[in-house]
Amino acid sequence: MNTILTTFRKMGRPLAAISLVLGTAGAAIAPASVAAQAPSPDIDRAVAALRAITTLKANFVQTDRSGQNISGVLTMKRPGKIRFQYQKGIPLLIVGDGRALTMIDYEVRQVQRWPIGNSPLGALLDPKKDVARFAKLLPTPDRNVISLQVRDPKHPEYGAITMIFVRNGAAPGGLQLDSWVALDSQNKRTTIRLNGHQYGLAVADSTFKWTDPRRNASNR
């Protein structure tokens, strides 16, 4: 059996499955709370770029903490919807429907569900999340790269996410979401890198529905 899949099951949490990091940025993430920081134009630009995404489809490569990779296709539709469709042979599906993140394991017929707002991905998906309020810029060696860490110091159990943006005039807001790192409250992390970005595609809401393996019927 795929060792990454085995690890996911041992963790028993979808957030552990999608705690995601860019290689160099991952080293910059620490469990300390975010210090107060003066308002920054780069933070405002990054948040505006996120809010400017209507739909996004991209390939992703996910790296776990032991360095193993799996791939798949990510589909996002704001506000709140996301789908991680893993490569053939990985019988997992992770879906955010605007309210919760759900991990479906079709091989063992298990379903787990958590509120989006209580996860690192809330910074990406939760329209009520005040990203700028909890954001901190991390230094990068390239002025064309913005590294933005989001952590709510009042809720360390929600974890943290570091999003990496690259300046790209073709992307909404002029910044392309290149990758991100989600770190859970136990400091477990995974890396996701995106490529082949497609913006503004028509994405039906049915994309974010799933079949419940426990009763072999749609969840809707």
CATH superfamily: Lipoprotein localisation LolA/LolB/LppX
User: Can you tell me the CATH class?
Assistant: Mainly Beta
Under CATH, the topology is which? outer membrane lipoprotein receptor (LolB), chain A
- How many beta strands in the DSSP annotation? 13
For this structure, the quaternary state is single chain
Helix tally equals: 6
Please explain how this structure is put together.
The structure is a single chain. With 220 residues, the chain is an alpha+beta fold. The chain has one domain: Clam (outer membrane lipoprotein receptor (LolB), chain A), CATH 2.50.20.10. It is built from 6 helices and 13 strands.
Give the SSE layout.
Layout: H1 3-11, H2 14-17, H3 23-26, H4 41-52, E1 55-63, E2 69-77, E3 81-86, E4 92-97, E5 100-105, E6 110-115, H5 122-125, H6 131-134, E7 135-138, E8 145-151, E9 160-167, E10 175-183, E11 189-199, E12 211-212, E13 217-218
